[in-house]
Amino acid sequence: MRWERGDGFVADDDVARVDLDVVHGFISTSYWAAGISRDLMQKAITGSLNVGVYDADGAQVAYARAATDRATFAWIADVFVLESHRGRGLGKFVVSTLLEHPELQGLRRLILATADAHELYRSYGFDDVADPSRLLTIHRDATILYGQNDGGAELAATPADARNHS
What we know:
Shape: globular
Order of helices and strands: EEHHEEEHEHHH
Distance between the termini: 32 Å
């Protein structure tokens, strides 16, 4: 599907259009997936519902994805707008487009994690977990997991990993 904003920016869910160089370039330096390999990022893109935002020249400037079964659940992940394009409402555009996608309608649960965009997501109805005692996680530190080993590190969780979630 394709959504036009009217000012030259379009959103598109065509996975073939996702610019792996742009997405990997941003995500591999993010606080949540620093060091992720290009191959692992490609695998994440391939297994997800993706929305890219593109400028009038076709260059990708924003991205978001949903890891989802397209029936009951989605995890919203890897949302970003390139620094050069911030302040133009593109974050809202990419999030709105993803959340309005027909394949994410009627889901029982949508979830995400963020360190710095709580108010953006609250404006779409996201809220704190009502009963955090029901939510469990295994958290593996991206700097250890992805480090310099091209994404193939041992996946050993420690009690410290479980406490340090972002």
